[in-house]
Design brief:
This protein is an alpha/beta fold and 359 residues long. The protein is built from eleven helices and twelve strands.
Length: 359
């Protein structure tokens, strides 16, 4: 019968694709047992939305096939989202990772991407919240079908956010009338953002997605300066006029030392509602070229589908309308890649901290 040492040695040949280290040294192999030739262990991923989980399981099984005496292998794929090490003493309590979703200009579908990113991660098994910090155009209540929610503070002056589609949501839209504009100066905006983080009972979350206003104004600066963001997702459309503003958003995040998790090209193509023919309606691959230019990850192209857009206006995010549509498939892929980038950022920060201590 093979020993645990032999099994761990075999599994150490399996490299985690994103982190670049073997799964044994990364402590991803846990609760290993060997009994009558049967090997059982938990394969602990860094996110339930891991885009390569099937490949990683196959590689582990292939590695164990080379060990003499093993008759069967039982692998339990589990996950444990790692916390941004800088958040241990920061707000909000219980939240492991803060992910901003921004854009250089309005009208590129940033809020839609944020909503579907949150829902996709929740559908993968993660605990997710969505903070609608787009104070000038808070659309998330409508996108989640919870625009009638009226917030009430408890005895500790805390607000419990509503939940729909597996995502906890809080928005400025809950605090204003539908036709009421937010005519606020910088200090008021800063105070609102701090209250959203401090006075809302987010509970235990793997990811808190933050839907930023378009541009590079007071809200973005307040958030970047007051809490440690694990990174930002930047949304654009393919045409040059949108990309020129995205460059400013990318420059702002870099200046504020916020890692850019990747760039998303929204409305890359048009899906005909009748024949389902896919037609490019703007310049093709503009966002991909910009991502290559700045050496940041390109997370994918999301086609424009009138059917899913209409459903979103009625309170159902695109990924739930038709899970097999090109739009839904692209959005789920983006979510998995964002989760992978978050894991990579946290690993690199942890490694940097270890290296600094060693010095």
């Amino acid at each position: 019968m093979p020993t645990k040492e032999q099994i761990l040695k075999a599994l150490s040949s399996c490299i985690e694709p994103e982190l670049g280290k073997d799964i044994v040294s990364l402590e991803m192999v846990q609760n290993l047992t060997v009994e009558n030739g049967t090997v059982r262990f938990d394969y602990r991923l860094t996110t339930p939305a891991c885009p390569l989980k099937e490949r990683m399981e196959r590689e582990a099984r292939a590695a164990l096939e080379k060990v003499s005496g093993i008759t069967s292998v039982e692998i339990n794929m589990v996950s444990d989202v790692k916390q941004d090490v800088r958040l241990s003493q920061a707000l909000p309590p219980g939240v492991k990772n803060l992910v901003a979703v921004g854009s250089g200009k309005g009208g590129v579908g940033k809020s839609s991407v944020a909503a579907n990113l949150a829902v996709s991660l929740a559908r993968e098994g993660a605990r997710v919240g969505l903070m609608d910090a787009d104070v000038y155009g808070p659309n998330q209540p409508q996108m989640f079908g919870i625009h009638d929610y009226v917030p009430e503070a408890d005895g500790e002056n805390k607000i419990t956010p509503p939940e729909n589609h597996g995502v906890k949501v809080f928005s400025m839209g809950f605090l204003m009338k539908a036709d009421q504009p937010a005519i606020w100066r910088g200090p008021m905006l800063h105070g609102a953002i701090q209250q959203f983080l401090k006075d809302v009972r987010w509970g235990e979350l793997d990811y808190l997605i933050i839907d930023l206003p378009p541009g590079t104004g007071d809200v973005q600066l307040s958030l970047c300066q007051s809490v440690p963001l694990v990174g930002a997702v930047v949304v654009s459309t393919p045409q040059s006029i949108a990309l020129s503003d995205v460059r400013k958003a990318v420059a702002m995040f870099k200046k504020m030392n916020v890692p850019i998790l990747g760039l998303v090209e929204n409305m890359s193509e048009f899906v005909c509602p009748n024949c389902r023919t896919v037609t490019p309606i703007f310049k093709k691959a503009g966002a991909r070229e910009l991502a290559d230019e700045h050496r940041i990850p390109f997370l994918g192209e999301i086609p424009l589908d009138p059917a899913v857009c209409l459903a979103a206006e009625n309170g159902t995010p695109a990924v739930l309308v038709d899970p097999n549509s090109p739009t839904s498939t692209a959005l789920r892929s983006v979510a998995r890649q964002v989760a992978a980038q978050v894991s990579l950022q946290n690993h690199n920060r942890k490694q940097l901290k270890v290296d600094l201590v060693a010095q």
